[in-house]
C-alpha cells in the first residue's frame, strides 16, 4: 500500500509545472546527476564514449515533453538535428530517442509530423535510428498512427510499447517487423486501460517480448529485473533466437554491474542516456518506479 502511495505521489509531482520550471534553475541537483548525463549534448557524448569503450551501445534522449508552444517545438526539432550531427561527428555508437509531445504534438499534429519526419530523414543520412518514445495513453494512438506513416517510407524508425497496457500484446502483433523497445510503463494510467497489478504487468511483459521475438522482429528488452532477463535468455536459447535479434536495455546510472555483466556474456546491450535542463519529470518517474530509488537520490544529494 505504501509503495502505491509513494508511486502516485512522485507521478503527481512529475506533472507539476511550477516545480518543473524551478528545477531548471536548480541544475542537476537532488541526485539527478547520478541518472542524467549532463545538461548539453557535449556533456552526454563524453559519457557515451565511456559506455562504448565498455562495450555498451547507447540511445540518447534530450529530455523534455508536453510542449504547448510552437517555438519550443521548433527549437526541440533543431536540437534533435544538432544532436544527430554531434553523434555522427564523434562516431559514437548511439541512436536518438524522441518524444512527440516535445516536437509539438499538442500544438499542431501536422507540425509534429513535419518535425519527426525531418529528424528521421536526417538520421537516415548518417545511417542512424530514431526511437519514438511512448508517452501517456492520451497520446498513444497518435503516436502509433504517426509511426505507421513513417514506416511506409523509412525503416530507421521504431517505437516503444508498454506492458502495463491491456492492449500491449495486440499492438505487438500489429507491429510485427517493426523494431520495438518493450517496457513495463512509467505513467499513471486508469484501470480501464492499464493493469495495476505488478504480477499481471510482468506476465504481459514477458509475453510481449516472446511474441515479438517469435515474429522474427528486432526486440529491445528494457528492464532492470534480473529474473525477467534470465527468463528472456532461457526463452531465446530454447527457441534458437540469435542474439543479433535482440538487445537488453537499462537506464543510465542504474545497475551498472548488471549492465556490464550482460556485455561480458556476449549480449547486445544499450544504455538509455538522458540529458538536458528539463530533467525534472523524468527524474520523478524514476523515483516513482521503485521506492529504493528515493534512497539512491538522497545519497546523490550528499555525494557532491
Task: Give structural notes.
With 304 residues, the protein is an alpha/beta fold. The protein has a single domain, classed as TIM Barrel, CATH 3.20.20. The chain has twelve helices and eight strands. It has helices at 2-14, 17-26, 41-53, 70-90, 109-125, 140-151, 168-174, 198-214, 226-238, 256-264, 280-289, 292-301, and strands at 57-62, 94-98, 130-132, 157-162, 180-183, 219-222, 246-251, 269-275. Helix 7 packs parallel to helix 8 (198-214). The chain is globular, with a radius of gyration of 18 Å.
The low-confidence runs, each spanning 5 or more residues with pLDDT under 50, are 293-304
Summarize the biggest pleated sheet: 8 strands, parallel, barrel
| Number of E-state strands | 8
The secondary-structure element order is HHHEHEHEHEHEHEHEHEHH
pLDDT average, as an integer? 88
Amino acid at each position: 500500500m505504501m509503495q502505491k502511495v509513494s508511486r502516485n505521489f512522485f507521478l503527481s509531482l512529475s506533472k507539476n509545472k511550477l516545480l518543473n520550471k524551478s528545477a531548471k534553475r536548480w541544475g542537476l541537483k537532488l541526485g539527478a546527476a547520478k541518472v542524467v548525463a549532463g545538461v548539453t549534448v557535449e556533456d552526454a557524448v563524453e559519457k557515451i564514449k565511456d559506455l562504448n569503450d565498455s562495450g555498451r551501445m547507447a540511445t540518447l534522449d534530450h529530455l523534455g515533453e508536453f510542449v504547448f508552444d510552437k517555438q519550443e517545438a521548433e527549437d526541440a526539432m533543431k536540437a534533435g538535428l544538432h544532436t544527430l550531427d554531434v553523434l555522427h561527428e564523434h562516431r559514437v555508437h548511439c541512436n536518438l530517442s524522441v518524444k512527440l509531445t516535445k516536437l509539438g504534438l499538442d500544438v499542431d499534429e501536422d507540425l509534429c509530423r513535419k518535425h519527426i519526419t525531418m529528424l528521421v530523414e536526417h538520421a537516415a543520412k548518417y545511417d542512424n535510428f530514431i526511437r519514438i518514445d511512448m508517452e501517456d495513453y492520451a497520446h498513444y494512438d497518435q503516436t502509433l498512427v504517426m509511426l505507421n506513416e513513417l514506416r511506409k517510407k523509412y525503416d530507421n524508425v521504431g517505437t516503444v510499447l508498454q506492458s502495463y497496457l491491456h492492449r500491449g500484446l495486440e499492438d505487438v502483433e500489429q507491429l510485427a517487423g517493426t523494431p520495438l523497445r518493450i517496457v513495463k510503463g512509467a505513467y499513471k494510467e486508469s484501470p480501464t486501460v492499464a493493469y495495476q497489478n505488478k504480477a499481471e504487468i510482468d506476465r504481459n511483459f514477458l509475453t510481449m517480448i516472446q511474441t515479438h521475438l517469435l515474429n522474427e522482429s528486432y526486440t529491445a528488452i528494457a528492464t532492470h529485473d534480473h529474473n525477467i532477463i534470465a527468463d528472456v535468455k532461457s526463452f531465446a536459447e530454447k527457441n534458437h533466437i540469435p542474439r543479433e535479434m535482440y538487445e537488453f536495455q537499462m537506464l543510465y546510472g542504474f545497475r551498472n554491474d548488471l549492465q556490464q555483466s550482460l556485455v561480458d556474456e556476449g549480449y547486445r546491450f544499450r544504455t538509455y542516456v538522458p540529458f538536458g535542463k528539463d530533467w525534472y519529470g523524468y527524474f520523478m518517474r524514476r523515483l516513482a518506479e521503485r521506492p529504493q530509488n528515493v534512497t539512491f537520490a538522497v545519497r546523490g544529494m550528499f555525494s557532491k
